[in-house]
Design brief:
This protein is an alpha+beta fold. Helix content is 39%, strand content 25%. It has 10 helices and 9 strands. Strands 1, 2, 3, 4, 5, 6, 7, 8 and 9 form a 9-stranded antiparallel sheet that branches. Strand 8 and strand 9 form a beta hairpin. Helix 2 crosses helix 3.
Length: 289
């Protein structure tokens, strides 16, 4: 997968002054657009669209300083419909407008070209299994919350605390299939996984029973799931597991992520400082090249 990601990086460079379609990039890399965006975001720490924008404005900045084309010609060359739109985007990346940059020779920011490599130290192994699961339903309390990459997610913590013990006990009794028990289920999240992006969060269970009044339901189609386990300090061990799945497991295995909810089964220690976690991610096999 990393070899194909690096080919995507080369394709982007060749198309900076033209149209760049993420679907075409994904097809050339023999994967899905969904998985390409997920993998890139996990490895690069920014959405694919943001990387392309920054690379374009980096190259455009060099042309602005060179002074061989008019600012409008440069704007059109890099996909901006007007000088005003180009100036706003330029200032957002470089902190100065293109006209001022040309007049003063101001120092500009630069987004380096990216490439990816896998570092294997052999110090640990990931515990996982594959589960082929028929369609099922998640039932529980639902909230719209922001994505937090590092540290506690206060919106989720406050939401769960406000649910009430009785509701939790009712849900626990409804759990009748794997993964068992109260779950943290995230759905409807943009594959770029931008910090602060909103997602649907369910505090619920997988069940064949009807939803109690006031509870939300999430139907989930049949498919394959990769199930990962970890133990350690909370939330650091769980966040490290998410990172390692995308930076180590996916590049080393013939699977790709597919659209669907991401499910976390969490069991906290008595003092609340550590946890045992089981992460369920929807996957599918990569097509054979």
């Amino acid at each position: 997968m990393l070899e194909r990601l690096n080919q995507v990086m080369e394709d982007i460079e060749r198309r900076l002054d033209g149209s760049i379609d993420a679907g075409e990039l994904a097809r050339a890399a023999a994967t899905s657009e969904y998985h390409l965006r997920r993998m890139f975001s996990a490895l690069a720490g920014m959405p694919l669209s943001e990387y392309i924008r920054r690379r374009r404005l980096t190259v455009a900045g060099a042309e602005v300083l060179a002074g061989e084309r008019t600012l409008l010609e440069i704007a059109v060359r890099y996909g901006y419909g007007s000088g005003e739109a180009f100036a706003r985007a330029f200032r957002g990346v470089h902190g100065v407008g293109p006209g001022e940059a040309r007049r003063t020779g101001a120092a500009l920011s630069s987004q380096p070209r990216m490439s990816f490599r896998l570092v294997v130290d052999g110090s640990s192994s990931m515990r996982y299994r594959l589960v082929h699961k028929p369609e099922f339903t998640v039932v529980g309390a639902k909230a719209r919350v922001p994505l937090v990459h590092s540290g506690p997610n206060r919106a989720i913590i406050d939401f769960v605390r406000g649910i009430g013990r009785q509701v939790g006990e009712t849900l626990e009794k409804l759990s009748d299939q794997e993964p068992h028990g109260i779950l943290a289920v995230c759905d409807d999240l943009d594959p770029s996984r931008t910090e602060g992006a909103e997602l649907d969060y369910y505090h619920g269970v997988v069940t064949s029973a009807a939803a109690p009044q006031g509870m939300a339901t999430l139907p989930v189609p049949a498919g394959t799931w990769a199930v990962f386990t970890t133990s350690g300090p909370a939330p650091e061990a769980i966040q490290a597991l998410w990172r390692d799945v995308f930076t180590e497991w996916f590049p080393s295995n013939p699977y790709r992520s597919r659209p669907g909810p991401e499910i976390l089964r969490l069991r906290m220690s008595a003092d609340g400082k550590a946890a045992d976690a089981e992460l369920w991610l929807p996957v599918e096999q990569q097509p054979v090249q």
